[in-house]
Design a protein that fits this description.
heterotrimer, A alpha/beta, B alpha/beta, C mainly alpha, A: Rossmann fold, 2 domains, C: mainly alpha, ABC transporter involved in vitamin B12 uptake, BtuC, two-stranded antiparallel sheet, 25 helices, 72% helix
Chain lengths: 380, 241, 611
Amino acid sequence: MIALRRRELLLGAMAAGLAAPAFAQSKDPILIGVSGPLTGQYAQYGAQWKKGFDLALDEINASGGINGRPLAYVFEDTQSDPRQTVTVARKFVADERIVVEVGDFSSAASMAASPIYQAAQMVQFGFTNSHPDFTKGGDFIWSNAVNQKDEMPLLADFLRDLGLKKIAVLHLNSDWGRTAKDLLVEAIKQRGGEVVGSEAYLADEKDFRSAIVRLRGTNPDSIALISYYPDGAQLTRQIRQAGITLPIVAGGSIYSPKFLELGGADVNGVLTTVPFFPDDPRPLVQKFVKSFEAKFSAEPDAYNGRAYDTIILLAGVMRQFGTDRKAIKDGLAKIKDVPSVVYGKVTFDTETRRVANPLVSRIEVKNGKWAAYEGGKVTR
Amino acid sequence: MTDAILKLDRINSFYGPIQVHFDLTIEIGRGQIVCQLGGNASGKSTTMKVILGLLKPRSGEVFLDGQPITGLSTPQIIRRGVGSVPEARRLFGAMTVRENVLMGAYTRSDRPEINTDYERMMTLFPRLRERTNQAAGTLSGGEQQMVAMARALMGRPRVLCMDEPTMGLSPLFVDHVLELIQAVNREGVTVFMVEQNASLALRIADYGYVLQTGRIALSGPARDLLHDPRIRDAYLGGQAA
Amino acid sequence: MTSSLGPWFDYTVNGLVVGNIYALLAVGLALIYGVSHLINFAHGSVYMAGAYIGWLCITYLGTPLPVTLAAVVIGCGFIGYLIERVGLRPLQNAPRIAPLLATIGIGLVLDQVAQLLFTPDPRGLPLQLPAWRIQIGDGTIGALDLLIAGIGLFSALLLYVFLRFTKLGWAVRATALDRDAAQQCGVDVNRVNSVVFAIAAALGGVSGFLVGMYYNSIDPNMGFQAGLKGIIAQMIGGMGNVPGAIAGSLLLGLTESYGIAIFGTSYRNLFAFVVMLLVLVLKPNGIFSRGRSLPPEPLTGTFIAPSAPVRIPPMLVAALAIIALALPLVVRNGYVLQTLGLGWLYAVLAISLTLVAGTAGMISLGHAGLLAIGAYASALLAIDFHLPVAATVAAAGIITAILGTLIIFPAFRLRGHYVTIATLGVGEIVTLTILNWDSLTHGPIGLSGIPPLSAFGMPLISGTWVYEIALGALIILALTQWRLLGSHLGRTLRAIRDDDVAARSYGIALDRYKSLAFGVAGFSAGIAGALMAHIFSYVNHETFTSQASLLALTMVILGGLGNVAGAILGAIALVSLPELFRVLADYRMLIYGVALLLLIRFRPQGLLGTV
């Protein structure tokens, strides 16, 4: 109770202070604390984040930084392990130079640290945390990850529009995969479809033959995947190798150039919905893709794009509302239609602290490349 | 003894902090049968380990034909002509009799002569011929002892070290094994054996050492020792002497 | 869509295909166990190395398949040789726990090096074979399935010929049967060891390469799970039994496949570990052995290094405790307090493990399972029944004590390596049960919104409170355990550790004493887990993994097995050191692995010595 009243007081104080953003004189960099995996089983995602961050910082600092001060980030490795995110959280909140935190990768690890950020009144900005409970940790917990509550109905719409009624679901057995699956099942039912079977697999599994045999026995019209790209590619290969030619529709998290490399010819025809994909003709996206390719000689994937977007967004908030920890929190609630590589335009829903009405594109793998879905035949 | 093929010179050996041998000196004359006697914990089996390089003494030297072999590894010592019949035989139980015997020739590569020696062994231990393809672990104790001896002899050792060759054998076999040891010795192989059964060992030995808590308590020609009252005391009256 | 043969035929084929892959790993592990009596936890990493050597050859040199295979064989054979020569041979005279831990450390280092060299991102490994597939039942098998089966059979045959008809093969068998006797036949057992490691590593590398091609995906972390499956497979077939390892692998593959058929995909690993535990308990020598008796060899007495522990005067301990309690008066930094607070909680886990591993001699690799039980027990009581946190934490201790003892009970008659594997299995089973028991544990969703630690309705979430509560729990539990160890109970447990046959012959009821040890240890670990749950506010099945168990064991060994003060020192060191290494971010785990190896090499009895 006491804590709550104090929070209200602070909110009032912040609102009063907002009108005059402070122009700092110092040339010391403004720091963003990044909590994420650089080693361990999720290390590849942390490596992808860095590329997106670096590109964003290049652009921001080339155009004057944050009102004259350079922007930088401190990346602390947590292996996306809840014990370490908690420790890193204490470190960040104790470091006065850090104005906002970004990450962690998995919702489990991020949510363990949420109470600390909330108590210290520093924004925890999770850009990969699609767990619906993530932002419920408090009013300092924000996310621009696609909430599964938004994404899964859009995927169900796609299935409905394709005329697929009997769906078999394969999902990763994690908090993320399970939540997404439950939401997808609900959305499919609301649209008059039927989920005839679902199988949960573990992250470190590579062999799905028997799971596929089980699902085949349910005689579905289509198979829906809730996977990351390595396991998604694996599943698709093995589904095709089992001689199943049913259409495969997957959640957006499989979207990555790596999906194509790991899946080979078998992934042709896989359909998905993504907020971001490089062939999107929007000029903002094309500009991002060009500079990314120039810097890293590789095509950006969803994580690169999200990481880039997040830093650009936060820099925008800082430029407009100041670099005070609380000002950032309040600024996030105020921004409207900020241009975004991932979403087109970002406005936060101040209730859920997530992006309101995110934009998605329907895409498919055509001749070994991601391409916009243009209707027509959906089987391979 | 002037012509010692194997000599242990002032050996001090330890198991961790516990000293086993105290300035142990033993000479084994060429062509002889020498036995080392002693009760439990007298350090007699450890003597074998020192000779075979399984335990490095903290000080002292082991000489084979005048050459020091103290720092060498077990396989190197075996290669120099020491054969070993370990305590409790230690056969390769899941391997056949033939394989066990031929393992003894591991250090050699003269194929035809190995075959000749193998035939000799089968003549020396005819019972083994009937069992060449049987797993060694399924043999009786006496038969296992024969395999162990054949295995050791296949390396054409100059010195054969035998650790308690009669242990656990039926009385009938004990005599047989002793005869075999004598037969081997007659072919020119020096035999050094460790035995708990003093009277048996001294019956066939040329020379004997009695070990007590790591020191030589007594030594001399086997015939003398056999009649020495102190031996009788030691083995009838326990550790009192 | 269904064929005349029905899905069971497909499940059978699938099981055999997967079992086939396990077999290539299991054979190498069985060879090594046969000759060195060592479970090689680094085997999975060699498998990973094989995949990357193959990838390098194909990508940069464009080699055809036979050349690639030859390169993998040679490359991995050399790695195997190095592991034995550099990593394990110096430990020959060390207690037997040392090489076991060394293989874990080597595996860690290899994985980390691969991650630094090749980045953690998975890579495709293009198939170098024609893409045709044969329809079998409702599924298909491809050229690679046949190649894998062919290589499996071919290497088994080659191995058979080698062991049966070559001099070196005989030496390998002889060394496996009796190392000392082999030496007395002139066999250079070190060379035999090198050869065995090289052969096993070559086989493991080939399987990694083939599996990488099979799934068109390789990554630096691919080895751990695969290695574990190989270990389970050879355990089922009988440790050190080469034909048994092949049969065990096929059986494991079938069991998993049928398990999926009956219970669903998420039960796969649960099934594998339960089968392994059943085999361990009912037929510890593998399902093909006749007797139930364990091989006489792995006795705990020789498993653990004897040494004189460092004596710490009680006054010094008291002084240190007071200084520690007063620290937050001086240090205000929440990060430092949080780190040390976590250190104290890990110290509770470590003293719990040092009791079972050190004092009772059961080296456990599944101790994180106890943390998980404690965490879930306390969190569920607090969330579902709204009990005060102080009560739920205490209850969690008791629940963990009872549950932990019950689930580990079947493993009490095992010794040495077998305990280690069994406890590893138990730890995994706890995690997988949490994952699958949706109605109680919320399955993969985990438990969120766990109330923070509190007193009289006041939440205690600051770094200072975390620190003081953890330290308080540690002091109370450590004192209790220290008193216990000085009593009759401690002496009895040590007697059991050093020679359980002798202990039994003195009329000591082993099961009762081991239960008591596990009960006390379970209570401490349960408290630690419960406190962690309330501090983290969110736990799921991945919060307490086998990595945490390994970390706990490293702490205990660092401090000296059975040594309470040592366990605390080890915990504080291993929680704070990685924090100090933070600047080195990417190299952190590598440094940790190297430190572990150096410790095993130069101070196997731990910093403060074994009690």
